[in-house]
Specification:
With 212 residues, this protein is of the alpha/beta class. The chain contains 4 helices and 6 strands. This is Broad specificity phosphatase PhoE.
Length: 212
């Protein structure tokens, strides 16, 4: 029987962002007090699992989410650049019709192709870099479990790729809540199961911001 390895993709916790900025890859966006509680809740949820490798996006909110996990398992957090948030033209702006950046005609050309998408990093590029990060995590934790802390869009894009679904989608329909866990189970190198959990569901406030 082939060895079983599980790679868990953990979305970071809630971020302190009172201005409602689409912060993307901008530095300085850290977890809120509630986000810290989310990270602690997730680490507790993982405590009895066989985690032997821990990776994180280089962004502050992801590293802070990984920190309690590092303490629980006594693991160093390996920074994995391929887990970073997706690039986005609207980074640093508020987004939406009416009072957001959509009211400015200069932004309209970036909305013409939602399938690519035209406003940011192509879905296929996101999926391929995330796939590479997952393969590296799987190889590092063979026969055990690995945790990769990343962001909503990269995790959801990879899941759709893994499930052989089209990668373009409506942002409000993503199943990837704050501090949620999307788990990929492998037998040898073959993906055999995708599952989803929300260990910090009781701490999630509504509404949340898609793509954050």
């Amino acid at each position: 029987m082939s060895e079983k390895t599980i790679v868990h993709l953990l979305r970071h916790g809630e971020v302190h962002n009172p201005e409602g900025i689409l912060y993307g890859r901008l530095p300085g966006y850290r977890l809120s007090e509630n986000g810290v509680l989310m990270a602690q809740a997730v680490a507790k949820w993982f405590a009895d699992r066989d985690v032997t490798a821990l990776f994180s996006s280089p962004l502050e909110r992801a590293l802070e989410t990984a920190a309690p996990m590092s303490e629980v398992f006594g693991l160093e957090v390996a920074v994995e650049e391929r887990l970073i948030e997706a690039g986005n033209h609207f980074e640093g702006l508020t987004f939406g019709a009416g009072q957001g950046s959509l009211k400015h005609p200069r932004h309209w050309p970036f909305l013409i192709n939602p399938i690519r998408p035209s406003w940011g990093e192509p879905y296929r590029k996101i999926a391929m870099r995330m796939r590479g990060a997952v393969i590296a995590a799987k190889n590092a934790a063979r026969g055990h479990e690995a945790v990769c802390v990343s962001h909503q869009l990269p995790i959801w894009t990879l899941r759709r790729y893994a499930e052989r679904r089209r990668m373009w989608h409506h942002p409000k329909r993503r199943q990837c809540e704050l501090a949620s866990v999307t788990s990929l189970a492998f037998e040898g190198d073959r993906l055999v199961e995708v599952s989803y959990h929300e260990p910090a569901a009781g701490l999630v406030k509504r509404p949340t911001v898609p793509g954050a």
